[in-house]
Design brief:
Length: 164
Amino acid sequence: MNLEEAISQMIELGEKNPLKGAQRLEKEQGHEWIVQQLDSYAEDLIAELFRQRLGSRRRSAEIAIRPGDPMTSAIMKTQNFWVPGYGYKTAKDVTIEDLELRVQMYWRYIAGMKARADWCLEVVVLMKAEGAETLGKLKADLPVLPTREDDAVDPGDIRELGAG
């Protein structure tokens, strides 16, 4: 049995607490087995830790622009903006192209949220039609959550919107 199989088995047996599950797994299988299993995941684990730290840094370092807050030149010289595909840029160095990338990023977020809202609405309609009070009582198959990859915006479209 490998690590993934062991975790799946514990979940099937009702374990819902990741920390307790990890502790139980180490107790049952032994520390050496855990180390041996984790070795095959080392690169993925390190990459995931990198992603988490970068995301945390991005959220804490990025400038927070709130409605009504003035944007002073001092703020512009010191604060950071996250630019997709690039990383951090000082706000004063952000270009039109950088902002267009941010527009695309936010529109993708909106498209994803809209897809999930539409899915929830479809499920509500199904549940009401069946009189199902919970998802567990719904007899119909759940609709597939659509992908919204096609909702990405072409930077040329953004320029056209601004030119009007």
